[in-house]
Write a structure and sequence with these properties.
- The protein is an alpha+beta fold.
- It is 49% helix and 13% strand.
- The protein has helices at residues 8-21, 25-46, 57-61, 85-100, 135-148, 152-156, 162-172, 176-192, 204-223, 235-246, 259-262, 289-305, 307-315, 325-343, 348-357, 365-372, 414-427, 433-442, 450-456, and strands spanning 52-56, 70-77, 105-110, 113-118, 124-131, 251-253, 270-274, 277-281, 375-377, 389-391, 431-432, 460-462, 467-470.
- A hairpin with a 5-residue loop joins strand 4 and strand 5.
- Helix 1 (8-21) runs parallel beside helix 13 (307-315), helix 8 packs across helix 9 (204-223) and helix 8 (176-192) crosses helix 10 (235-246).
- The longest helix has 22 residues, at 25-46.
- The two termini are 18 Å apart.
Length: 476
């Protein structure tokens, strides 16, 4: 499958999306406050019959979306008979109704949980029951279920295993790129599964395991030289790999279990084993694989043809701000790296002027460059500042006067250079100057005297027939 090259504008929007998906401090504080209140009520009314409580689900795994999440609360009993599950859930619901007030909280229930929704701020919570299960007892339960085929006892113990599940997931998502890719994938699912397809929306747990599988596979392919990408692997790389994985006819992820465990599901198209329960095929409960494949394939096609439009649709309705500090810093580093690849080296003064011309603010430029680890510095001048800056890993370049605008005439802005380079990459052939002009106008990127600006830019060559091509392939 051909690689996907995202334009700089699309990458910028993707970074802004990721920055907006993590719950705010206020959301986390509110969720913790609701949890503490519920736990306090239960301890006061049920006393020592409750041994402990825990936050589970996406909040505990740090994969909750700022656009909406529920707080899974597991109440652990020291010795609980799950035959009395419904009776105990009814007791919990009645207790919370009496103490929280039905006028402030909406109540609902499932076979395994009491559901709450605060009318004031929309905070949602599922209260589940669990029991501490020793490892040897869990192994015995799994062996017995494997022989009899009856997984009922394991199913009701799913909440009991929440701590083991959260611990395993956090280990697998220790790389932020993997965890942030989960947020992108869950947002994509919420955007694309709408209308009738919303009923068959894949569960968050399935999405998380698919993204972890995609991340592991991508890292293996890069390590064995089967895929060439700019390192380190980013959340966008993992998200694209997740889309590719979703288009496949068959998918198998054993989550650390053995091939022998997978034989139980030999007849299933997709096998995604629960990391804490080898008898649970998480993929088996999802019935919309055909829809998922079609949506993922359409998204990949859109990423190839209109990456900026795809990112904009994904970002629709999100509280995105282009003034985010981390995004501005990334943009500064990207532009400095591009300038130094072109020039070899530059003074801090020239770099500051180039950034100012691009309307980028960086009050502590030297500190930002040093902290990134991407650059090296020449000897200090009389003012104690580095005399010049160059890319890390490159030999010390000879010092020479560096002009910010190479060639003659008007120079293309960095955004225009990236846009034209991306356009040529997408078309896969030289592009006529008239089409470039029209696309720049459509993207609202202003360029005066386009023909002279292209001639002045070191990256492009204009042919006699009016088409424009790149001299050197841009590293996007």
């Amino acid at each position: 499958m051909a690689e996907i090259s995202l334009s700089k504008p699309a990458l910028t929007v993707f970074r802004a999306i990721v920055a907006s998906l993590c719950p705010s401090k206020q959301q986390k504080k509110q969720a913790k406050s609701r949890y503490n209140r519920v736990v306090q009520i239960l301890h006061q009314n049920f006393g020592k019959s409750i041994s402990s409580t825990a936050i589970a689900g996406s909040v505990a795994k740090a994969t909750a979306l700022s656009t909406g999440f529920d707080v899974d609360t597991v109440v652990f009993y020291p010795d609980f008979n799950f035959r009395n599950l419904k009776l105990e859930l009814d007791r919990i619901e009645a207790c919370l109704k009496q103490n929280l007030g039905q006028d402030k909280v909406e109540f609902g229930h499932t076979p395994y949980a009491v559901q709450l929704r605060w009318l004031e701020d929309g905070t949602e919570m599922d209260v589940l029951i669990g029991r501490r299960v020793p490892d040897e007892q869990l192994v015995a339960m799994m062996d017995a279920a494997a022989q009899t085929g009856d997984t009922t006892e394991l199913d009701v113990h799913s909440a009991s295993l929440c701590r083991e599940q959260v611990r395993w997931m956090k280990q697998q998502m220790s790389d932020p790129a993997c965890r942030l890719a989960v947020l992108l994938a869950k947002l994509w699912r919420n955007r694309r599964f709408s209308g009738d397809s919303k009923k068959n929306k894949p569960a968050s747990y399935l999405i998380e395991l698919l993204v972890i599988h995609a991340y592991t596979r991508l890292k293996d392919r890069v390590a064995h030289g089967l895929k060439v990408i700019d390192l380190p692997v980013t959340e966008i790389d993992v998200f694209v790999e997740f889309l590719r994985l979703a288009t496949e006819q068959r998918c198998q992820y054993l989550a650390g279990h053995s091939d022998r465990d997978a034989l139980r599901f030999a007849g299933d198209e997709h096998v995604i084993l629960d990391p804490v329960n080898r008898l649970n095929n998480v993929a088996d409960r999802f019935r919309g694989w055909a829809v998922l494949r079609d949506l993922a394939a359409a998204s990949i096609a859109e990423l190839r043809s209109k990456p900026a439009d795809f990112a904009a649709r994904l970002a629709d309705g999100l509280p995105i701000t282009t003034q985010d500090t981390s995004l501005a810093k990334d943009d500064v580093l990207w532009r400095v790296g591009r300038l130094l690849r072109e020039k070899g080296s530059m003074t801090l003064t020239d770099l500051g002027a180039a950034l100012a011309a691009a309307k980028l603010k960086c009050p502590h430029l030297l500190r930002t460059l040093r902290a990134s680890g991407q650059f090296q510095f020449g000897p200090n001048d009389a003012a104690g500042q580095p005399s010049f800056v160059y890319l890390a890993g490159k030999p010390v370049p000879p010092r020479s006067a560096v002009k910010l605008t190479p060639g003659r005439g008007k120079a293309l802005s960095p955004d225009a250079v990236v846009f034209v380079s991306s356009l040529i990459s997408l078309v896969g052939a030289p592009v006529h100057i008239s089409l470039i002009g029209g696309m720049l106008r459509a993207a609202k990127i202003k360029v005066n005297k386009l023909q002279r600006a292209l001639d002045a830019c070191d990256e492009f060559v204009r042919h006699p027939n009016g088409t424009v091509d790149r001299k050197v392939t841009a590293n996007l």
